[in-house]
Write a structure and sequence with these properties.
Layout (H helix, E strand, L loop, with lengths): L1 H13 L6 E8 L4 H11 L4 E10 L5 H13 L6 E4 L4 E3 L5 H8 L5 E4 L11 E4 H9 L12 E4 L3 E3 L1 H8 L10
Helix pairs in contact: 1-2, 3-5
Length: about 180
């Protein structure tokens, strides 16, 4: 919860002015699932929020299970713009606003904006058009879907602070190796 409390307020500033529905999955990293859930509920009290929790260690959900969950989430909402994919251990490093980035760069059809300065489609922070997101979560593997992206751009908005947190709090063990 401490990492989320340090990171999320900056993201909330970045998305200011946009209506967002949050879907959060919490895996058991350090036996603090309930505390983490309560912290997210406090931090996101002004937003529509769905939280799923798992008692398994690390990120045990495989890609297909993740896609199934994402597909269910996608069916429960109809965004006007698209999907803002965020990881809980990435920190915004910009004073820009998401609404401005969207207005300037977003295209409706098969569009992806990497907010992590990636050269290709990834599940790092980014904005997905509705049609691209729905295609990717229903198609496996992801590398075959990269060819369908019609509009791609990258911005240097987020950076990964989770590796340092893991080193300092989990003795360097990556969470996906805890399963």
């Amino acid at each position: 919860p401490e990492l989320h409390s340090a990171i999320l307020p900056n993201t909330l500033k970045y998305i200011e002015g946009l209506k967002c529905k949050w879907f959060i999955t919490i895996n058991n990293i350090n036996n603090r699932v309930n505390e983490t859930k309560e912290n997210f509920e406090l931090l996101l009290k002004d937003y529509d929020l769905t939280i799923d929790t798992y008692d398994t260690g690390g990120t045990k959900m495989d890609f297909m299970h993740s896609c199934e969950r994402l597909n269910n989430y996608a069916k429960s909402c109809d965004p006007s713009i698209g999907y803002f994919w965020l990881e809980d251990d990435w920190l915004i490093n910009s004073d820009k606003m998401l609404a401005s980035d969207i207005k300037k760069l977003f295209k409706n059809n098969l569009c992806h904006i990497s907010l992590a300065n990636r050269n290709e489609l990834s599940f790092n922070p980014g904005i997905w058009s509705k049609d691209l997101f729905e295609h990717v979560i229903c198609t496996y593997p992801v590398d075959k879907t990269r060819a369908i992206v019609r509009h791609y751009c990258k911005l240097d908005r987020y950076h990964d602070v989770g590796r340092t947190w893991q080193k300092n709090n989990l003795k360097g063990i990556q969470t996906w190796k805890l399963v």
